[in-house]
Amino acid sequence: MIILTGAGAGALYGKIRATMDLDFALKFKTSSAKKKERLWTEFSKAAHEVTVRLGIAAHFAEDIDRWSSISYLDYEKHTLPFKRFGFIKVRLLEPPYWAIGKLARYLDPDIRDVVGVMKKTQTRPQTLATVLGRALKQSPRSTACELFRRQVEDFLTRYGRKIWGKEYHAPETLRLFHRQARLLPGIDIPGREILAGRPAHFQRD
Prior knowledge:
Strand content: 5-15%
Structural class: alpha/beta
Number of domains: 2
Largest sheet: 5 strands, mixed
Number of strands: 5
Helix content: 40-55%
Strand order of the largest sheet: 3-2-1-5-4
Shape: globular
Order of helices and strands: EHEHEEEHHHHHHH
């Protein structure tokens, strides 16, 4: 099974952006370590051939939660069916869980992707804030947690109305995010002293 995330999943959700790579989790349903290793080797070889022929890079792992300092929670339970190719099922990471990686990186293309996908899929602000808060709460404490918190707060404040319209209430959504993360506005988490006064590392249009 493939669980697609990144720009590839964003494009399938309807936010079209040119991308030359695919990011996904790869799961083989077998208890045999030997068979799993053989399947992994065969798939890796096929993916490399696609990269050489088409110039599309494939980035995949058994557990994409290891790609980020911010937890993807129980992401395997939050996917949507897309297509089946032979014995391979392709599923999409649900929008709120897909947004975790985007908001952890938080470059301009990531911001545009999240705005577009949240709007296209009509994801409720409460749902997004809840998942993002839980992701922060479940993440091992590090400076990445403080950076993620600040970037989520910035996104919900600056871009909420672009997604949910004039009735969107940023303070209410931020309070929900803080509650789910078990944080209160202004309360430090480990790592804040290192980042104090330093702007988040993202670009603006």
